[in-house]
Every structure is written in structure tokens, then in C-alpha cells.
Amino acid sequence: MEQPYQPVKKLFFGRDDAESDFANGLLRDGFQSTYASEAVLAGRKSLVVGRKGSGKSAICAHLAGGGYPGRTALITPDDAAGDEIRRFELQGLTADTAKSLIWRYVFAVHAAQYVTEHAETHKKWRAPASVRVLKDFLQVNDESGDGRLTDRLRRGTRLLQSATLSVKMFGFEASVSAGGEPGTGSEGARATRQLDALEAGVRAAFEDLGCVAAGEKPLLILVDQLEQVWQGDSDSHALVTGLLLGAKHAAAAYRHAARCVLFVRADIYDALNFADGDKFRSDEVRITWSPSALRSLARGRASLSLERPISDEELWDGVFPPRVVGEWTPDYLVRRSLARPRDIIQFLTLCRDAADRSGRSTIHEEDVMEAAEQFSRWKLDDLAKEYNVGFPFLRPVFAQFENAGYAVDRIDFTVRFDAIREALHDRYSAYTEQLTATSVIDALYGIGFLGVSRGDGVVYAGDSQWPVQPYEENLRVHPCFRPALGCRTPTGAEDGRAYVGIGYQGTNAGALNHAAFLRNVVTTDAGFQADRHVRLLEETASALSRLQRQLERSGLPPAAHSEVQQGIDVLNSEIDALPLPGSGLTSGMVEDLIGIVTERLALSHACLNDNGLRDEPLTRRLADEARALRRALGGAVGAGGGSDSSG
Q1: Angle of the 558-576 helix axis to the 530-552 helix axis, nearest 10
Q2: 349-356: which pairs have CB atoms within 8 A and are 24 or more residues apart?
Q3: Are 444 and 390 in contact (CB under 8 A)?
Q4: How far apart are CA 64 and CA 443, in angstroms?
Q5: What pLDDT, on a 0 to 100 scale, did the predictor assign at position 452?
Q6: SS3 of the chain: helix, strand, coil, percent, to 5
């Protein structure tokens, strides 16, 4: 009897970290090539920048594990190594430059080891003199074996600070003491001359062996896991800046025979501020993942675990349910993650585990929704840990969003934050300058927790190079973190309704009660022109009429249909409640009301989007009418309050 199809039992998407995933996961056979990995492999890029979990270490593990056709050397500093580099100083040099020398020493030793081994493996005749001298150098300075990075750093520190580095090769010894008698000149100048001589000797050996010839694969020195030694202080900045300077120097010193590739977390790289930063632009590549690339990653790993190729259709309409709360399942997963491989792997694994616990052979919609809750809690906790060095106050700040709406008004957040600011100042006194509402909003945007309404959508960190602007009032909690915080609706209404927006009163100070608010306005506008405010009101009424007709022929679920209908009715009644032209109506009344209408239309567009109704014609109509009203007012209302097309 044929067994039922049960993919859940065999389904596996890999391990959380690249090292484990390469050793006993799917990374070795299921590595997903990207523009960043291809650029590194081709030699076009040497500085890979990406957020935690974006795939930096996966590229590094792939290259070190056979993905690169030449020889590689992997350097992953730990706490002990970091302490050695932080303590390294040289009189006469800045901290950045001094630390670049200790990195240059480490690179030179790896290059020297490689070239001496290369000579023994590939040459049948007597090794050139340059290679023999390098071999002597390694033996004299106790650098013949692999050893621990910490031990190598200690030896390099001792040799460079004491000017006892043995570099007797081809007359280069003279350059070491070029500043006068041994022991004269600044400590930094002596160490620099020693390293110059050592690098010249390594370069000579490369040239004598033909390692710089066209077609010869260069030695690839890979440096990863810098977050292990990052503490956010000035010494950490100097450590990483020195690494960048040392790697660039090594690339020039060894020409095409050896090069360094650095893998740096985005928040660390972006925190650096040094004079030569602009010289690394052409070396830099940022890791980004499109939804299609993440779907391909999921399909590839599912195929490996099921031991046969599967199509997108089979994965997303067979193994997984085709839709979750009305949204195509891959879109649902990607939009509720931070669009990076580790997130997708963890989210998919949670879905698989939920189905397996329930004894199902395939993954059902309720399994995905259950996984989304757990995944959100994980990611909120991970975010606080990821940025604990720079922003240790995140957890109490996150609490201010709990059980509230995910559409955040800047003024409302400022009020909430001011209530805890004094307590935060007492607890995190070293971060007083960062503990203002504006600075915290900037930080929350930078780490991806908040997005900002801009144009017709919501922009999150990585989507734009521009930070949150002071005039941008409408912020959004990222969909990834909403379940963990209980942000179920844009407004945080607690009446249990899934669709709120147009008719909700409370989105800002002026919307608490439009009718009463507008009747009590006492200001006048001497320059008000009756034909303009009448025209604006007519356009607003026409927009609501068009939405009414679109709603009547829409296919919205009953709950959504009822909410939108109620919202249209509320707005129409508020227009009716305005004074008649010539009877106290002012331009301020009209513009305030139209601004509120615009905001509510945009908010409703976001609500329908978030509930899987993105393709519904009414959803697009809401955004169109909001844009038209904003243009009618000259763009002066609802600044940045566009619709949320991406969640």
C-alpha cells in the first residue's frame, strides 16, 4: 500500500549559525549565491557589510570550505585576541595606525607561511633565496605552525614594540635601522620600517615563485566574527579601523598574490568615523536579499532535505498552505521577518515544528500563524541583544509600544517616552545624550524596529539612505515585532475588530472628535477665498462617493466591509457638521478636516494591506484618493503620511 505524502517528517531548513550549518546543516550543498558572494569571488569587492544574520559568515564559510578555488586563511578573533589588539600601542602613532601595524603583522605571517608551503609543494628545484629567508624568519620568530591568533598577536606585539623582529633578508635589514642606530627613532617609526621590510621580503618571494602571474589564484585571507571583539568604545573603533587600514595596505603590498576579505556587521561599520573612510567605498558591498532570493533559498533547502527537486508551486501550495490570512504565504513570511536568511530559516523551521507537533503531514495555516507568534518574540529579544552595546536601554523602550497601535504618532510617543525618561537617565547615565525622544526614534529606525511613512509606503532602515526627518510624524512598528508586542491593529483599539482605520477616532490630537473640534474653532482667516474651500470640500465629498461605489462592488470580507462602510459614514457626517460658507467656515477648518480624511484613508489602506487584501481594488483606490486630496491641498497636509504598501 502506498504511503501518504508526509514531507513534514523530512523537512529541514538548516542551522541558525553559518559554522554549524556548514558542518552539519545545508550550507555546504545549499549555499545561495548572491551578488555579494560573486563580487568577492571575482575579486571586485573585499569588504562585505551586512546586518546580523544576513549571510556574511555564510559567504565566509563557503569560501573557506572549498567555494574558493585557491588557498584561504581564516581569522576569527575572540575576546582574548581583542584584548591583545586593544592593548597594542606604539609611541609616535595614532591608535588607528598602531593597530593597523599589528594586523599587518598577522597578514604578513599568513602570507609568509603560504609562500613557503607553496614552494615546497610546487617546486622541484631548490627554493629561491627569498623563500629560504622567509622560512628562517618563521622559525626564528616561532611562527612556523598555525597556532592561536592570541599567541600570534602576543608575539607580534612583543617584536614590534621591542624592535627585535628578525628580518634579515636581501639587504632589507638596512631599512629597519634607517633612522639611525638600533633603538633610535620613535617606537612607531621603527615598527613601521620593520613591517615594510618584512612585507617587501614576502613580496619578493611571491615574485620569485611566479605567484603574481596571471591566472594564479591569490591567497585569500578572510576575517570574520568581529562582533566578538566589539565593545563600542574608542579602542574597539581603533581595532576595526586599524583592520581596514591594514587590509588595504596588504592588498597593495602583495599585489595580486594575496588579498584580504573582511566581513563586518553593518552597525559596527556604520559607527566608524575616520579620515580615510571614503577610500573604502569601491571595496564595499552591502548584503541585501530580495523576496525572490529568499524564496529561492527556502525552495533550495527544502529540496535538499526532501532529497529531490521541488517547484515553487509544490512548496507554497502543497508543503505550505497557499495563503495565510488572505496573503500569499511567501509574502506573509518575508514581510514579517527582517528579510535575511537566518530569519527565514528560523521562521520556516518554526512552521515545520508546529505542524509536526500537531501530527500533520503538511504545514497548515494555523501552524504558520502559531510560528509567527513565537518568531516575533524571538526577534524582539534578539534585537535587544544585537544592539545591547550601543543601546542598552531598548527593552524598557520596547515596553512603551506594548498593547498599543503599530501606527505610531511622534507626538504620542514623545509623551509616553517623557514619562520614563528620568528613570532611564538614572539607570543609563552614560547614555544621557541618546535618551531624548528624537534620538530614540532615530535609533529605533536605524535598527529596523520602526519605519516611517514616506510617499505612498513605509520605509524601513535599508530601504533608504535618509534617516527619519524631524517633520515626519507617522511611524510604524515593523510587522516582525507586532505580535510580540500585541500591536494587532494600527490604532491599538481593544474592541477586537480586525479592520479599523477610516472611522477610528484617535489617530492624532485633532481627530479626537472632529465635529466638536471644528464647531469650536474661533480663529478666522481674512485671506480665505470661498471658491477654494468649497472646491476642496466638493473634491473630498466626491472622493468619499467614489469610495462608496467601489466598496459596493468590492469582494471584502464582511468584517472589513462593515468597518470601511462605517468609516465613510463617519467622515460624511463630519463634513455635514461643518458650518456653511459665510457662516463661520474658515480655511483652517477645511484643511484640518481634509488632512484628517487623508490620514484615515491612508490608514485604512494600510489596514487592508496588513490583512492580506493588498490586491483588492478598493485598497488601491484608498491610496489613490489619499494622494489626490494631498495634492489638492498642495502637499501641506499629512506630511509623509502615505499608505503602508510594505507593512
Answers
A1: 160
A2: 349/12, 349/13, 350/374, 350/375, 351/320, 352/8, 352/11, 352/12, 352/13, 355/8, 356/8, 356/9
A3: no
A4: 35
A5: 93
A6: 55, 5, 35
pLDDT, residue 581, reads 58
Where does 177-324 have alpha helices with state H?
187-209, 234-254, 266-271, 291-306, 312-314
**Residue 83, pLDDT score:** 94
CA–CA separation, 364 vs 317, rounded Å?
Answer: 10
The whole-angstrom separation of Cα 56 and Cα 53 is 7
Which stretch of DSSP H or E encloses residue 477? Answer: strand 474-477
Judge contact between 503 and 544, C-beta under 8 A.
no
Residue with cell 525622544: 437
DSSP structure class, residue 497: -
- Mean per-residue pLDDT over the chain, rounded: 83
Q: Are 408 and 644 in contact (CB under 8 A)?
A: no
Query: How confident is the model at residue 531, as a pLDDT?
Result: 56
- Element holding 408 (H helix, E strand): strand 407-409
d(Cα 560, Cα 545) in Å, to the nearest integer? 18
| Interacting residues of 584 by C-beta distance below 8 A, sequence separation 6+ | none
Q: What is the pLDDT of residue 497?
A: 36
Q: Which set of grid coordinates corresponds to residue 181?
A: 642606530
Integer angstrom CA distances of residue 261 from 46, 66, 152: 4, 16, 20
> What number of residues does the chain have?
647
Sign of the CA dihedral with 5 first, then 10, 14, and 15 last: positive
Q: Alpha helix (H) ranges present in 611-636?
A: 617-632
Distance set, CA 325 to CA 44, 316, 332, 350, 405 (Å): 44, 14, 9, 18, 19
In angstroms, the CA 40 to CA 55 distance is 13
Q: How far apart, in whole angstroms, are the C-alpha atoms of residue 91 and residue 425?
A: 38
Rounded Cα–Cα distance for residues 189 and 179 (Å)? 8
Bridge partners for 477 per DSSP = 450
Distance of CA 65 to the CA centre of its chain: 26
- Are residues 595 and 492 in contact, defined by beta-carbon separation less than 8 angstroms? no
What would the grid cell of residue 285 be?
A: 558591498
CA distance 45 to 346: 29
Write 358-364 long-range contacts (CB < 8 A, 24+). Answer: 360/8, 361/4, 361/5, 361/6, 361/7, 361/8, 361/9, 362/5, 362/6, 362/7, 362/8, 362/318, 362/319, 362/320, 363/8, 363/319, 363/320, 363/321, 364/321
Q: Provide φ and ψ at 634, rounded to 5°.
A: 75, 20
CA gap 2, 630 in Å, rounded: 62
- d(CA 374, CA 363) in angstroms, rounded, equals 16
Comparing CA positions, the residue from 560, 573, 558, 567 lying closest to residue 625 is 567
* Positions of the chain with pLDDT lower than 70, given as ranges: 1-5, 122-125, 163-185, 212-215, 492-534, 580-585, 633-647
Tell me, yes or no, if the pTM score tops 0.90: no
Strand partners, 74: 222
Report the alpha-carbon distance of residue 631 to residue 143 in Å, rounded: 70
